[in-house]
Amino acid sequence: MNEIVRKERYSEQVFMMAISTPLVARKAQAGQFIIIRGTETGERIPLTIADFDRERGELEIVVQEIGKSTKVLGTMEPGQSILDVTGPLGIPTHIGKVGTVCCVGGGVGIAAVHPVARALKEAGNRVVSIIGARNRSLLFWEDKMRAASDELVVTTDDGSYAAKGFVTDRLKELIEPRATSREPRAGESGSSELEARSSKLDLVFAVGPTVMMRAVAETTRPHGIKTVVSLNPIMVDGTGMCGGCRVLVGGKPRFACVHGPDFDAHEVDFANLMARQRQYLDKERAALDAL
Ligand SMILES: Cc1cc2nc3c(=O)[nH]c(=O)nc-3n(C[C@H](O)[C@H](O)[C@H](O)COP(=O)(O)OP(=O)(O)OC[C@H]3O[C@@H](n4cnc5c(N)ncnc54)[C@H](O)[C@@H]3O)c2cc1C
Ligand code: FES
After folding, report:
1. Ligand 2 centre from 110 Cα, in Å?
2. Is any ligand 2 atom within 6 A of the Cβ of residue 242?
3. Ligand 2 atom closest to residue 255's alpha carbon, by position in its atom list
4. HEC sequence for the chain
5. pLDDT tens digits, residue range 219-250?
6. Residue 250 in domain
7. Is residue 282, in this structure, part of any structural domain at all?
8. Nearest CA to ligand 2 atom 3
9. Does any domain span residue 221?
């Protein structure tokens, strides 16, 4: 049970693991996550279901090694079994037909945005995706995101691959093409290439580091574009009982594991979320040093 059937390393810190877990895979929907405990001494950690194959009973996770539990998971290989897999957890992303949707994935958030982009495209939306990472070595699934989208824009912060800059720079260009694209040359019509490709965005869906999701929210807020983010607070039980994942949305406390993880980005108190994410830093560092 919970056997690791494939593993692929994308960089020193990021790897994909496919797990055979038929009961979870059969019920998985875009936007949901699992909580896993790799070994007897491991912590329970939440990870987004990045892909699933209901017939084969497999799901894929993409993990960034940042602390003890993710590093221990990174040492596990095909043939070994994950001790427990709980899920699928969380409310699936609402997939409706709204028109043009921009799916934004940053870093390991690319994996989380993938099933959502695919489901939105299957529902008949025009999906323009923007994926980005700090540098080329941290980018993955460009092929899968291209297949899941009508159009894909790729960025790296340092310009080591594709367009240089942040995902929000490209998002701004989609929203305000006239302000950010080049002036038409003599003989051209008034619209640039980017302007021709873009249209009013009806929805933005973003997953990535909290600072990136906050920047996406601030980019779309002045334009009144509905924006949904998938939040990643510290989670423990994943069933709404411990309160660990409490976030403030619209001034009200919500538990991301059962009321989310998707929330209206313009209502999220990101400062509160970031403070809560940092509350165990000393203990996390000590656990890593001990490892
Ligand atoms: C709904 C959800 C989906 C996620 N999906 C992914 C994913 O697909 N891929 C991925 O690489 N990461 C994902 N994460 C983050 C992942 O859970 C943390 O990176 C992991 O728990 C870190 O554990 P650690 O022991 O390696 O690091 P630690 O050193 O323990 O912690 C490093 C940092 O990770 C965060 N963190 C620690 N423990 C938890 C916890 N129990 N729950 C949430 N965050 C924690 C904190 O911000 C902490 O400062 C997701 C988080 C949530 C809430
Ligand atoms: S993780 Fe315990 S209430 Fe959400």
Report:
1. 24
2. yes
3. 4
4. CCEEEEEEECCCCEEEEEEECHHHHHHCCCCCEEEEECCCCCCCEEEECCEEECCCCEEEEEEECCCHHHHHHHCCCECEECCEEEEEECCCCCCCCCCEEEEEEECCHHHHHHHHHHHHHHCCCEEEEEEEECCHHHCCCHHHHHHHCCEEEEEECCCCCCEECCHHHHHHHHHCHHHHCCCCCCCCCCCCHHHHHCCCCCEEEEECCHHHHHHHHHHHHHHCCCEEEECCCCCCCCCCCCCCCEEEECCEEEEHHHHCCEEEHHHECHHHHHHHHCCCHHHHHHHHHHC
5. 999 999 999 999 999 999 999 999 999 999 99
6. no
7. no
8. 240
9. yes
To test the ligand 2 pocket, which listed residue (236, 276, 277, 280) has its Cβ within 8 A of the most ligand atoms? 236
Give the range of the structural domain holding residue 74, as residue numbers without chain letter.
3-89
Quick one: which ligand is closest to 259's CA?
A: 2
Instruction: Name the residue at shortest CA distance from atom 1 of ligand 1.
Output: 232
Global confidence as pTM: 0.90
Is pLDDT of 189 > 50? Answer: no
Last residue of a domain, one of 62, 89, 116: 89
Residues 25 and 106 in one domain: no
- Alpha carbon of 113 to ligand 2 centroid (Å): 22
Residues 114 and 168 in one domain: yes
Residues 226 and 104 in one domain: yes
